[in-house]
């Protein structure tokens, strides 16, 4: 009896211990998660409560001092570069380990390993786009051409790995505990992968949709609806710029035979609308203090932990401060004692598709000119949590990976398209940032940029000595006009890119007469630039608002520049609303609701401030109207694209009776006013529903800006309904899920004054008080002090740590 | 008396051993303690359970108060359990169950080692 009862109770105790240590479905093991000494409770502790005066870090040549200011921004003081980047890796991992690993897992197509089969499709796509392949080539490039940079990237990686090896269970980021996995070793390859991830986030193409539109509309109508340049072009590089170089000739083939397929393929995801940025610099002659002022605000998905992590990095040779990308070395957007720089996305079609004709089913050879060229096979083994690995075979041609084939996103057996993208070419973006961090003048800035390939950026520049500059840098293919707008025949050698635009012929300007340089993702140049420039996603409103303001402003101060970053003026509404109201006529004039909304719209000052109702009404009415105009075009089965809003408004304004407004499915001939009325009717329905369910329709309440955790299911780790204004196409480009992911304003002069903020916090830990403490500051358009610090400065210091 | 002693000793064990060892090592420790102190079956069950359960409860409350962190509430919402208070309770209950069965096992193990007289009357 004694034995029976002992073994029975022992069995219960052991089973209990086993049950609480095993994951059940998606639920993580309960006891390790709840154990107050190791589980999530430990993540309640903020970084200042865990501060250590000294930490052992191997492979340092001298001690490194780290001073944290009151916002947990680390200021690293090292004696040389190797120590500096080793410490940067260590400190970044301390605060952002889970995020940096998760982002590189996403870039490598390995999310299924963490979350299971739900991410398999996403992983297949990432791998088929060849991001990991690009990073491998990048690493090879460093090994062969730039051992100096490689040594620094490896030092960073060593810093991260030393942190991982010191990490005990209690300090493990809470996401690992919930998702029940452990961090793996970091590597130089992962740092490079992160930069490819940025390319993927920022670069798209619409070749598929344009190919279909060409077939549906014909070339003439396509050119009318999608002109290469807008009527009012206010480009990045001032239109007056004289191009003083001899361009490389580009020959257009005599006859162009595009593949004539109707492409019923599910398109790849594109950068979401709202992904963009502003940057500018004003010369001393336009500022109150006579110093140049530089401003930058990249607009990206609003996520927690934030994409950005602020730091100061100092050696005896240089001291740089600004926003870093966890996982990459140095500062990405920032300033040092001599210069300041910032980035915005410079979209330009650097991604093209080629139709591949395979010799036979085996796909071992494809047609090119008069020969059959051999293909390469890359076997992608995708590990899937809780299931067998998925094996995907991706065929590589000299153009690039065959993304669409019989196994992926195509319902036709004969469709094969290869992706050619500058991301697949060995490159060294990391070196650009390392050199930029130390640059002292305009020449150094140009030298640094010469190493930069992708994603193409508008690099703004200002120096202490008074220079301002802008350069659009990336590796841009030489194309004949129209090349790469549509899918091309990969068997025809005439369809190849004919080389690349030399770096010195990329659009740039130094100290222009107008006293400022600026970019807001618009057309890079005007028509006089001698190379073909095309992209579908150019901005048409932020740029014009920005340049108008900069032209009229004088005696500019840092506060003026902050206010301009937070400017809510909706230029699109200012141009379109009077047209909409006039085309509406007396429609629904007997409805009291219609009267109320129209009154609010008419009295609106076009500022998308959080308490404005006019912005909500305009936003719904205009989008419903545009939707109605293009409904028949978008109803085509093959995926197509609608003309941009600028073009649509231009048609409404200047050609309201054009035949394109006619709806074929309805008897009679419709003109623009029909669609405006349809849009207004939809507005009435939508607002009645909203007022009934949600009540208040002031703008902030309607757009519901949300800063979302990187795992969207982790809703309680997100910050929903942030009260702030702005929107897409507005300088303060804060929409519901996108917006200013980092704001910086720097005045260069004998004393540098710097300010910055981002919607998040320095800690990646949702339990820390430094996780989201910047959000209210950011939402109010306020800033943190970002002045450079010296190690002696004890003001507003949180704590200090010595690595040795 | 032995039950109270076991409760106290278990609490001390959890406070000092748990930070450096996973929960299952603590369970073994409670079993050993319980076998050494040797209360009766109910005493072992309650002593181990209350010792570990109350300590886990106390530790989670202590962390919640000293850090003022929003994490318990965030975790509660994430796990569909409402607030952090529920999680504190669940932590206490899980700690109690793990400690209780360890304590009881310890007592029953000690029982195995006790020599039972074959004939109580003959001695």
From TrEMBL, chain A:
- Name the Gene Ontology molecular function terms of this record: hydrolase activity, acting on carbon-nitrogen (but not peptide) bonds, in linear amides; metal ion binding
- State the UniProt keywords alphabetically: Calcium, Hydrolase, Metal-binding, Zymogen
Q: Which SUPFAM superfamilies match?
A: N-terminal nucleophile aminohydrolases (Ntn hydrolases)
The family database entries (InterPro entries) matched by this protein are listed as:
Ntn_hydrolases_N, Pen/GL7ACA/AHL_acylase, Penicillin_amidase_A-knob, Penicillin_amidase_dom1, Penicillin_amidase_N_B-knob, S45
- Any Gene Ontology biological process: antibiotic biosynthetic process
Q: Identify the cofactor(s).
A: Ca(2+)
- Which note does the record give on the cofactor? Binds 1 Ca(2+) ion per dimer.
Family from the record: Belongs to the peptidase S45 family.
Name of protein? Penicillin acylase family protein
Q: Which organism is it from?
A: Algoriphagus lacus
UniProtKB/TrEMBL annotation, chain B:
Write the record's keywords in alphabetical order, separated by commas. Membrane, Transmembrane, Transmembrane helix
Residues crossing the lipid bilayer are: 12-38, 45-65, 85-109
* Organism in which the protein naturally occurs: Algoriphagus lacus
Its taxonomic placement starts with: Bacteria, Pseudomonadati, Bacteroidota, Cytophagia, Cytophagales
What is this protein's name?
A: Uncharacterized protein
User: What is the superkingdom listed in this entry's lineage?
Assistant: Bacteria
């Amino acid at each position: 009896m004694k034995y029976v009862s002992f073994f029975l109770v022992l069995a219960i105790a052991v089973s209990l211990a086993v049950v609480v240590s095993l994951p059940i479905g998606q639920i993580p093991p309960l006891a390790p998660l709840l154990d107050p000494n190791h589980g999530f409770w430990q993540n309640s502790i903020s970084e200042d409560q865990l501060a250590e005066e000294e930490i052992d870090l191997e492979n340092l040549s001298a001690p490194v001092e780290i001073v944290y200011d009151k916002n947990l921004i680390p200021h690293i003081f090292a004696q040389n570069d190797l120590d500096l980047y080793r410490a940067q890796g260590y400190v970044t991992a301390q605060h952002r380990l889970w995020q940096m690993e998760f982002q590189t897992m996403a870039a490598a197509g390995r999310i299924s390993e963490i979350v299971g089969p739900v991410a398999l499709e996403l992983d297949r796509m990432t791998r088929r786009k060849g991001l990991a392949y690009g990073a491998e080539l990048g690493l090879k490039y460093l090994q062969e051409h730039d051992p100096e940079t490689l040594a620094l990237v490896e030092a960073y990686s060593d810093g991260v790995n030393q942190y991982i090896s010191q990490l005990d269970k209690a300090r493990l980021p809470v996401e690992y505990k919930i998702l029940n996995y452990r961090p793996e070793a970091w590597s130089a390859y992962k740092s490079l992968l992160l930069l490819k991830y940025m390319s993927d986030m920022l670069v798209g193409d619409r070749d598929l949709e344009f190919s279909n539109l060409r077939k549906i509309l014909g070339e003439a109508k396509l050119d009318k609806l999608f002109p290469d340049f807008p009527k009012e072009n206010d480009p990045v590089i001032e239109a007056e710029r004289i191009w003083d170089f001899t361009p490389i000739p580009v020959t257009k083939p005599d006859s162009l035979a595009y593949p004539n397929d109707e492409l019923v393929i599910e398109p790849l995801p594109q950068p979401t609308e709202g992904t963009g940025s502003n940057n500018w610099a004003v010369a001393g002659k336009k500022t109150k203090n006579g110093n140049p002022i530089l401003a930058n605000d990249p607009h990206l998905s609003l996520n927690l932990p934030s994409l950005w992590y602020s730091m100061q990095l100092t050696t005896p040779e240089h001291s740089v401060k600004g926003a870093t990308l966890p996982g990459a070395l140095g500062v990405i957007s920032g300033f040092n004692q001599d210069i300041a720089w910032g980035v915005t996305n410079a979209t330009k079609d650097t991604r093209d598709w080629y139709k591949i004709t395979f010799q036979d089913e085996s796909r071992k050879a494809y047609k090119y000119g008069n020969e059959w060229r051999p293909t390469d096979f890359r076997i992608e083994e995708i590990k899937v949590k809780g299931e067998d690995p998925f094996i995907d075979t991706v065929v590589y041609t000299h153009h690039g990976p065959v993304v669409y084939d019989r196994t992926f996103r195509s319902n036709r057996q004969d469709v094969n398209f290869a992706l050619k993208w500058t991301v697949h070419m060995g490159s060294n973006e990391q070196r650009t940032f390392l050199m930029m961090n130390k640059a002292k003048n305009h020449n150094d800035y140009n030298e640094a940029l010469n190493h930069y390939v992708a994603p193409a950026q508008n690099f703004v520049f200002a120096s202490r000595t008074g220079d301002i500059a802008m350069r659009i840098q990336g590796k841009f293919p030489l194309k004949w006009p129209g090349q790469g707008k549509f899918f091309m025949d990969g068997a025809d050698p005439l369809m190849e890119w004919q080389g690349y635009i030399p770096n010195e012929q990329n659009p740039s300007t130094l100290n222009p007469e107008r006293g400022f340089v600026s970019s807001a993702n618009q057309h890079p140049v005007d028509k006089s630039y001698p190379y073909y420039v095309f992209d579908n996603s150019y901005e048409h409103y932020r740029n014009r608002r920005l340049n108008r303001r900069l032209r009229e402003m004088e005696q500019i101060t840092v506060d003026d520049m902050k206010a301009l970053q937070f400017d809510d003026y909706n230029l699109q509404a200012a141009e379109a609303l009077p047209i909409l109201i006039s085309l509406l006529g007396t429609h629904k004039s007997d409805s009291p609701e219609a009267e109320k909304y129209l009154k609010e719209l008419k009295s609106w000052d076009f500022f998308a401030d959080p308490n404005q109702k006019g912005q909500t009404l305009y936003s719904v009415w205009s989008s419903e109207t545009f939707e109605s105009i293009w409904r028949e075009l978008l109803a085509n089965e093959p995926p197509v694209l609608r003309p941009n809003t600028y073009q649509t408004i231009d048609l409404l304004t200047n050609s309201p009776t054009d035949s394109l407004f006619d709806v074929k499915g309805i008897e009679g001939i419709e003109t623009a006013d029909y669609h405006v009325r349809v849009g207004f009717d939809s507005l009435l329905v939508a607002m009645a529903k909203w007022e009934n369910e949600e009540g208040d329709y002031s703008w902030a309440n309607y757009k519901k800006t949300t800063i979302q955790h990187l795992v969207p299911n982790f809703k309680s780790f997100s910050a929903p309904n942030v009260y702030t204004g702005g929107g897409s196409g507005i300088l303060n480009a804060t929409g519901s899920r996108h917006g200013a992911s980092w704001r910086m304003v720097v005045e260069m002069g004998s004393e540098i004054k710097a300010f910055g903020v981002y919607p998040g916090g320095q800690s990646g830990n949702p339990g820390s008080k430094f996780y989201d403490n910047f959000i209210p500051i950011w939402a109010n358009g306020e800033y943190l002090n970002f002045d450079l610090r010296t190690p002696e400065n004890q003001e507003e210091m949180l704590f200090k740590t010595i690595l040795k | 008396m032995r039950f109270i002693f076991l409760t106290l000793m278990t609490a001390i064990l959890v406070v000092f051993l748990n930070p450096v060892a996973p929960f299952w090592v603590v369970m073994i420790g409670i079993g050993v303690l319980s076998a050494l102190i040797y209360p009766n079956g109910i005493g072992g069950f309650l002593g181990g359970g209350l010792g570990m359960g109350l300590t886990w409860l106390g530790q989670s409350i202590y962390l919640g108060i000293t850090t003022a962190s929003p994490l318990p509430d965030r975790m509660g919402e994430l796990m569909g359990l409402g607030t952090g208070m529920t999680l504190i309770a669940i932590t206490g209950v899980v700690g109690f169950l793990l400690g209780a069965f360890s304590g009881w096992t310890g007592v029953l193990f000690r029982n195995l080692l006790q020599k039972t007289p074959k004939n109580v009357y003959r001695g």
